[in-house]
Write a structure and sequence with these properties.
The chain has 147 residues and is mostly helical. Helix content is 59%, strand content 0%. Helix 1 crosses helix 5.
């Protein structure tokens, strides 16, 4: 959404490593990935809309919040002007998704106008696919914190 001519984040000095690059050997990274995969598999087994499902979602969010609070990111200077075209593309997509959900809720999610949740639920019906979606969600959260 920022203008193309916005100043970029300053580069790190040559000798200083990024905080997320502290793991030097591939074994700890593989162990972390395996632990996340196991957590995703267990999380996929919870029944939706229960206390356990809520805790499974809140736990990684809490861990990422603590990491983000403990190591705040370097601030990128704000752009001098906003890219109106880029902003409008995102705004149109978000408004369209909200309209879809609101109209499906108003129409009581009839078969000819299903909500997005009704469309996605069959795809996430199997345990391995749901576990993979949770793993992607966890890795996306880490990418946002790392950024």
């Amino acid at each position: 959404m920022a203008a193309d001519n916005a100043p970029r984040r300053p580069r790190r000095p040559a000798g200083k490593r990024a905080p997320w690059a502290r793991v030097r050997h591939p074994v700890p990274k593989a162990l972390i990935l395996a632990a996340l995969a196991c957590y995703s598999w267990i999380a996929a087994g919870t029944e939706p809309f229960t206390r356990n499902a809520l805790l499974v979602v809140l736990a990684p969010g809490l861990v990422l919040a603590v990491i983000a609070y403990g190591r705040p990111p370097e601030r990128i200077p704000p752009p001098e002007r906003m890219d109106v075209a880029g902003f409008s593309y995102w705004a149109i997509c978000i408004v369209a998704l909200f309209e879809w959900e609101a109209s499906a809720f108003r129409d009581n999610a009839l078969w000819w106008h299903p909500s997005l949740t009704d469309l996605i639920d069959p795809m996430l019906g199997t345990h391995p696919v749901k576990a993979m979606a949770i793993l992607i969600w966890l890795l996306s959260g880490w990418a946002l914190v790392r950024r």
